[in-house]
């Protein structure tokens, strides 16, 4: 699980809110699986909304430009972003995201993300709660920040007590399917960059770079 700050700049965040204002929303349960629909109580931006494509492009562009997201997610494909709104009394009960999403070509959900569009002070409650083998984790990040987490985890959105919680959510199919292999490559890439910053392009750097490339050749699913 990664928390990544400043995915959106203040200017981008302002533009997202401007485009979302007065757009048509529909009941969020329409896009949930048959079981998750029973516990999903929120609103989602209508895909036919006038600014939907522009909002998609803005968020996807911000993700592509973020180096930490690229290193952590190793994206091969993204599902279309959902823009969700939770008012007082709304929540999303325990659920696991669908393993396969969309029509052909289908996208396998390896990682999920929640990009917070509202500041924590804008609403009470509404924490993203993720269950893992390490325990229960609650997330309520600053506007413009993102939490990236495995799609196979049980998670929920706590009831919003007051105010409005706005988020953008999405799913990633990774170039490296195995999370252990992604962790190894992430750690090696961080080390490779640190080594270059400290010593420049040395024989040690070249040897490490070769090993990183060869692991990509072994594990990647392009």
TrEMBL record:
SMART domains per the UniProt record, alphabetical: P4Hc
Cofactor-binding details, from the entry: Binds 1 Fe(2+) ion per subunit.
A family per Pfam: 2OG-FeII_Oxy_3
Residues given in the record as 2-oxoglutarate binding sites: 165
A molecular-function term among this protein's GO annotations: dioxygenase activity
Source organism, top-level taxon: Bacteria
Keyword Plastid: no
All copies of domain Fe2OG dioxygenase, residue ranges: 76-174
The entry's keywords: Dioxygenase, Iron, Metal-binding, Oxidoreductase, Vitamin C
Cofactor: Fe(2+); L-ascorbate
HAMAP family hit by this protein: Hydroxyl_YbiX (MF_00657)
Protein name: Fe2+-dependent dioxygenase
Taxonomic lineage of the native organism: Bacteria, Pseudomonadati, Pseudomonadota, Gammaproteobacteria, Steroidobacterales
């Amino acid at each position: 699980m990664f928390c990544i700050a400043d995915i959106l700049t203040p200017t981008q965040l302002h533009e997202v809110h401007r485009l979302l204002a007065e757009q048509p929303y529909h009941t969020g349960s329409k896009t949930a699986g048959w079981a998750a629909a029973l516990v999903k109580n929120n609103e989602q931006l209508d895909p036919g909304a006038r600014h939907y494509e522009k909002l998609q492009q803005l968020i996807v562009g911000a993700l592509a430009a973020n180096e930490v997201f690229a290193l952590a997610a190793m994206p091969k494909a993204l599902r279309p972003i959902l823009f969700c709104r939770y008012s007082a009394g709304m929540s999303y009960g325990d659920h696991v995201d669908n393993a396969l999403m969309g029509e052909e070509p289908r996208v396998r959900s390896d990682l999920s993300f929640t990009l917070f569009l509202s500041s924590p002070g804008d609403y009470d409650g509404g924490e993203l709660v993720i269950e893992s083998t390490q325990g229960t984790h609650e997330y309520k990040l600053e506007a413009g920040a993102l939490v990236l987490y495995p799609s196979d985890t049980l998670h929920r959105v706590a009831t919003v007590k007051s105010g409005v919680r706005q988020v953008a959510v999405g799913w990633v199919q990774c170039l490296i399917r195995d999370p252990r292999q992604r962790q190894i490559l992430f750690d090696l890439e961080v080390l490779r960059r640190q080594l270059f910053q400290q010593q420049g392009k040395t024989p040690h750097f070249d040897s490490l770079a070769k090993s990183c490339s060869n692991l990509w050749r072994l594990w990647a699913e392009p």
